[in-house]
Amino acid sequence: MLESQESQASPSPYDDAIRLLARREYSRAELEARLAAKGHDGEDVAACLERLAEQGLQSDTRFAEHFIRSRVGRGQGPLKILAELGNRGIASEFARSALAEYEASETVDWYELACDTLGRRFSSPGDTPSERARRERFLAGRGFDFDQVRHALSHAWDA
After folding, report:
1. For the whole model, what pTM was predicted?
2. What is the pLDDT of residues 32-52, one digit of tens each?
3. What's the CATH code of the domain at 84?
4. Domain of residue 115, CATH code
5. Of 12, 14, 31, 52, which has the highest C-beta tally within 10 A?
């Protein structure tokens, strides 16, 4: 009797996808991987993803917008954001386009964000070369480019 209950309770890929999307946005590639990991058939997953896209319940565009906004709020730079979008299955060209749209609509200043991020983490630029290098590595690890790192090291503690 327990086996029959389990087979009846086996959710469809669509049901599992809805549960996942109720919690947060997912890219198409992330959803596909999650549904496959739950043991759903590849064809069923593909059909489910098409249905979700047609219904507007899953959108890589919306996912990218939300993801970028979230990461900027965390103080991450453009290089890391692009890399993480790629890791989540968003094509490089599409990710760059989404980031450019975000930059245009939100007027994000990466130099200012680098300064704010560095100023929150460290109280000074550092007295020794090793301390300055530590701050550089911190910003580089956050996804800021060389010019943004240099600018932040010079201006993060300006009053």
Report:
1. 0.85
2. 999 999 998 889 999 999 999
3. 1.10.10.10
4. 1.10.10
5. 31
pLDDT tens track for 76-127 = 999 999 999 999 999 999 999 999 999 988 888 999 999 999 999 999 988 8
Identify whether 2 is part of a domain: no
Residue with tokens 């979700």: 52
Domain of 39 in residue numbering reads as 7-54
